[in-house]
Amino acid sequence: MGKALIIGAGGVASVVAHKCCQVPDVFEEICIASRTLSKCEAIKDKIDGGKTKVSVAQVDADNTQEVIELINSFNPEIVINVALPYQDLTIMDACLATGVHYLDTANYEPPETAKFEYKWQWEYKQKFEEAGLTALLGSGFDPGVTGVFTAYAQKHHFDEINYIDIVDANGGDHGYPFATNFNPEINIREITANGRYWEKGKWVETPPLSEKREYDLDQIGPKNIYLLYHEELESLAVNIKGLKRIRFWMTFSDNYLNHLKVLENVGMTSIEPINYEGKEIIPLQFLKEILPDPASLGPRTKGKTNIGCIIQGTKDGKPKTYYVYNICDHQECYREVGSQAISYTTGVPAMIGAMLIMKGQWKRPGVYNVEEFDPDPFMDALNKYGLPWQENFSPTLID
Ligand code: NDP
Predict the structure, then answer these.
(1) Three-state secondary structure along 37-73?
(2) Does residue 82 have its Cβ closer than 6 Å to ligand 1?
(3) Whose CA is nearest to atom 9 of ligand 1?
(4) Predicted ipTM?
(5) Which domain holds residue 152?
(6) Residue 295 has pLDDT above 80, yes or no
(7) Which of these, 85, 102, 374, 385, could form a disulfide with 109 (CB 3.0-4.6 Å)?
(8) Is residue 261 part of a domain?
(9) Domain for residue 312, yes or no?
């Protein structure tokens, strides 16, 4: 059917590339392009030899002109942006300049302020409409599948959704005293920020990790979950009519939080530049360099993730509750694509989103979040491509 350009060569990009190769009738050709060419070549070495033709390229995606030149030479239908959130706008600009569809898994964040919001990317709506191009934002797991789960619940189970609690649990153990499951810089910026949830039309802020509950998760067991701000809250609060409250919860072990507290207390999570031996460095970026590479956790991680949406609302005038979730096994992911479940649960939905755009099922000019499209083909593809989902019609609710 066509060609896809994958930008980034980290843990998520590797899964996207593996998964595209499993659907060669859609992805006839892929190019993996990133800052460090050797990382692209390492992915190519693992997946080459099948029906999908694989090439690699070096690109600095902070530079729109470089991305434009790469797109013009490879000529893809879509760019799958699985680099870092800082590159979202430069890549969107390059897509507009070259007439190519766009997809990402994380919303834009200016490097100098730890503040992620959709506003910068939503401002591109008119430009993508006028160009006749689709930009699909946040097609990972959360954001991504959580939005598709919500749209599916809205379509098939509710007349009106009033409350959503998204629960992201990782019961995996990699055996290191401290490591993050995806890019450490992005991950730590997210967790050390204030918590925030949306209620009755307003955002309510909470000090970082101050709201805690215990929740018993299928196949994982009871875990402490903490309220965090997460980017899909912003789009779902706009797109789900009748919503009264939406919150996001994530599990962290006491060990993880103790390490994080110490790192924070000594200033290692700061994004303020400091001068070290005549060179300006950012402590959090230095910390990233000494922490284990998330892509290296694959062979070591055992256990499962469980991510889903607990939804309350009404159907036919009666109150209804519904919980839809996916359970993913770290070791099974590693056996299939050589990555742990965090990269897997992000990379599979990115491939699915790109596939639906290329097949025309999710092609609509403009800038969209996943919940704005028909969830059914995405839900079918989740079952088919490694992220089957389960339903519970009487879940325990979170107070
Ligand atoms: P990694 O850090 O493993 O990989 C990022 C890749 O992007 C690296 O290969 C890096 O290159 C490359 N890159 C960074 N800057 C540039 C640049 N200027 N030009 C070209 N390439 C660049 O991250 P992950 O794979 O773990 O995560 C990828 C994305 O997925 C992130 O945006 C993350 O926020 C998002 N994510 C989304 C989730 C979801 O559920 N929606 C969950 C997890 C992650 P180099 O190797 O040279 O540094």
Answers:
(1) HHHHHHHHHHHCCCCCEEEEEECCCCCHHHHHHHHHH
(2) yes
(3) 9
(4) 0.98
(5) 145-338
(6) no
(7) 85
(8) yes
(9) yes
